[in-house]
């Protein structure tokens, strides 16, 4: 069975696994690999003091880079359910899984609010 | 003292001073606010932090790691045993996972 992504990588082991989580992890790895290139191209494209032709070429090359190298494609997912909605970034948990774990006392320092 | 206040340096001279100061301290000097893209070069790389989101695989060993390290112990994962039992039960009741599309097409042919 061929690996379904262009580059082979290890699946994250201590997280809830999901097709979407795997895709997100792949995007993170690819973004890390291509970040410097993308930054350089972005700099060339946005620098008004460079010749227009160089800027245009940089812009085209940036647009032709694969979409899985873009930072905007990356989305923080819940570590317990793989859900990408209502994720609290400090805990990396979806609001429902956060509530489940907090109610069981599994999140240190978190208790039901009352004041 | 009063002569100093009457004869302040010309703006151009002050600009020269600022440009020189920036070159000495290796700072970016952009008096006309020209868009030279230096803000993209100034930022820190956030790739390494982004990759660590789903955790480090080698931080904590998993059950399969223990099985590999101690094959003579014949460890059995109770969660995996339970999962396989449920799969077998569902298959027995005719409620197993449906065939993949390719296999279904092959069977039809």
What does this structure look like?
The complex is a heterodimer of chains A (115) and B (109). Chain A is mainly alpha-helical. Chain A folds into 2 domains: 14-75, Helix Hairpins (Orthogonal Bundle); 76-115, Ribosomal Protein S14/S29 (30s Ribosomal Protein S14, Chain N, Irregular). Chain A contains 3 helices and 2 strands. Chain A has helices at residues 19-46, 52-64, 95-103, and strands at residues 87-88, 93-94. Chain A has a two-stranded antiparallel sheet with strand order 1-2. The model of chain A has no long low-confidence stretch (mean pLDDT 97). Chain B has 7 helices and no strands. The model of chain B has no long low-confidence stretch (mean pLDDT 90). The N and C termini of chain B lie far apart (104 Å). Chain B has 109 residues and is an all-alpha fold. Chain B has helices at residues 2-6, 11-24, 38-42, 47-51, 63-69, 78-92, 101-108. Chain B has a domain at 60-98. Chain A: Keywords: Ribonucleoprotein, Ribosomal protein. Chain A: This is 37S ribosomal protein MRP2, mitochondrial. Chain A: GO terms for molecular function: structural constituent of ribosome.
Number of β-strand runs of chain B: 0
Order of H and E elements of chain A:
HHEEH
The biggest beta sheet of chain B is recorded as: none
How are strands sequenced across the largest beta sheet of chain A? 1-2
Runs of chain B with pLDDT <50, length 5+?
A: none
Q: What percentage of residues of chain A falls in helices of 4 or more residues?
A: 40-55%
List keywords for this structure.
heterodimer, A: 115 residues, mainly alpha, Helix Hairpins, 30s Ribosomal Protein S14, Chain N, 2 domains, two-stranded antiparallel sheet, 2 strands, elongated, B: 109 residues
